[in-house]
Amino acid sequence: MHSAKSRTSANEKKRNFTETVEAHVMLGVDPRRGDQMVRGAITLPHGTGKTVRVAVFAEGPSAEEARAAGADVVGGDELIEEIRKGGGKLSFDKCIATPMFMPRLSKVARILGPRGLMPNPKLGSVTNDVSGAVKAAKSGRVDFKIDKTAIVHVGLGKINFSEESL
């Protein structure tokens, strides 16, 4: 990582944005086989450098927990209707849901799914512990999954992070 960052800073052009440092790792597995799928999540110690807006589908005490944990958008059926009628405009980057909301989310699966926002129990975004999930999402949790060419792509941080932070 040290040599890569020093090489890029030597050839640095002026950019109008802060570049993301990414890792692309080719694995020796066959992604077509179900037992060789690589998928998971990791919380980066210094975050990703992005501010993440989190939406939580919950009602009652779980909704209050989510608001206290710092969720940007909290709602139930009214949030689902807002997404359906919004024409695809979303004001959040990650979705978390309680298990009781999963059947109701099928109404907006066509909107959330292609954007990678549909809550998934395998990734921990369908949980009863909404406060823990919101804090993890806000603190730099990164989901990763192998693609069809057996490569895992993960963003690690921003180019302006110190070498120790990366």
Automatic annotation (TrEMBL):
Top-rank taxon, per record: Eukaryota
A GO molecular function held by the record: structural constituent of ribosome
GO biological process terms, semicolon-separated: translation
InterPro entries named in the record: Ribosomal_uL1, Ribosomal_uL1-like, Ribosomal_uL1/biogenesis, Ribosomal_uL1_3-a/b-sand, Ribosomal_uL1_CS
One Gene Ontology term, aspect cellular component: large ribosomal subunit
Keyword Ribonucleoprotein assigned: yes
Record's keyword annotation contains Repeat: no
PANTHER family (UniProt xref): 54S RIBOSOMAL PROTEIN L1, MITOCHONDRIAL, RIBOSOMAL PROTEIN L1P_L10E FAMILY
Family per record: Belongs to the universal ribosomal protein uL1 family.
Protein name: Ribosomal protein
